[in-house]
Amino acid sequence: MHLRARALAIGATVLALLGGCAAAPQRSEPQTPSRYDAYAGAPIDQFTWLGHFFSWEALGRDRLVVFTTPSDAYLLKVWSTCDLRWVINTIGVTSTGGTVSAHGDAIKIDSAPTGPMTCPIDEIRRIDYQRMRADMRAQKNAQPGAAPPENAPANPAAAPPQR
């Protein structure tokens, strides 16, 4: 019976990895991390994941933001041995029972200079995306010459990147 449970767990992990692949990222310079940092909460241990990403965006060597829905975003930091700037097409994520955990799960990437890599997740921070969008709208509607709201993102966008 123990062997059967283990086989089911391995099968669920493989399905999660296959389902976690997202479309190719747009070929543009990665956004500066401060765009999301001002809205990222304290580190959390885990988040619930339903098997696919709405979108994702690399933020440099070892950080990325993943949208699990159009309005639920998480800032992930992976081990510094990874380089997310060169992801070729897709990313995947490991999970256990629909939960992605810091220090237990990883981002799977296919990188141009190194080939396939597993990047263990070091930190997870939930992004207050509703507040971020409200601040971006307020900044956009501000009168010309007015100072932007404190903690306003450096490069506002109306919606998460489409992948």
Which descriptor suits the 3D outline? globular
Distance between the termini: 41 Å
Q: Note the run of SSEs as H and E.
A: HHEEEEEEEEEH
Instruction: Give average pLDDT, whole number.
Output: 75
Derived from helix and strand composition plus strand pairing, the structural class reads alpha+beta
β-strand amount: 25-35%
| Sheet having the most strands | 7 strands, antiparallel
Radius of gyration: 17 Å
Amount of helix? 10-25%
* Poorly predicted runs: 1-31, 153-159
Tally of individual domains: 1
In total, the number of strands is 9
Number of helices: 3
Structural summary, described in words:
The protein has one domain. It has 3 helices and 9 strands, in the order ααβββββββββα. A hairpin with a 2-residue loop joins strand 4 and strand 5. The protein is of the alpha+beta class and 163 residues long. Helix content is 21%, strand content 34%.
Sequence-ordered SSE layout with sheet pairings:
Elements lengths: L1 H18 L14 H4 L2 E5 L1 E3 L6 E4 L4 E7 L2 E7 L8 E7 L5 E3 L4 E6 L3 E13 L1 H13 L22
Antiparallel strand pairs: 1-9, 2-7, 3-4, 4-5, 5-9, 6-8, 8-9
